[in-house]
Structure formats: structure tokens, C-alpha cells
Amino acid sequence: MKPNMQNVMKQAQKMQADMARVQEELKDERVEASVGGGAVKVVMTGELKVESVMIDPAAVDADDISMLEDMVAAAVNEAVRQTQDLTARKMSAVTGGLGLPGGLF
Known about the structure:
Elements: H1 5-26, E1 30-35, E2 40-45, E3 50-55, H2 65-95
Antiparallel strand pairs: 1-2, 2-3
Helix pairs in contact: 1-2
């Protein structure tokens, strides 16, 4: 039995609308990543935009700037990972786990 193409199109349109809604919701989502025991914190939006970077003054050592740079990079990378996980979870709820590539979002 062939699937009813009209129903398939309706389902696809609904999924597309739901995905657009999730993308809109992600704009209001925030993730916070912290490294170095809280020495560096990054807050990122669901759109992968860094909203803020907080650095504990105790983490600033003029003789070891590379350590601070590494912590900032690690915090940003962790925030990106958390945001991608959040996006994947929210999109999976819409797509029903179809495994659609991230480029489609």
C-alpha cells in the first residue's frame, strides 16, 4: 500500500513548522559552562552566540596567560557542546529521532 502523498506532505509541513518553532525557542535558551573550578564561565545562547565570559580575578596570572587562554577556550568549547546537545534533544523531539543531519536545522 502506497502512503497517501497528501498526508505525507501535511506531516512534512507540520515537522517543518515544529522545527522552526524549536529554532525560535532556542534563541531564548542559555547554557553555562564552567571550567577550572569556576575560574572561567561562559554563557551561550541556543544560537551558539557567546553572551558573556566571566573570569575570576584569581585566575589571572600575568606569568601564565596561556593557562587562562586555555581555560577560556575550554569553557567556550564546552558551551558549544552543551548547546549542540540541547539543540539535538529538542530537534529529536520534533523529528522523532529520524536522524536528520544538523545542516537541515
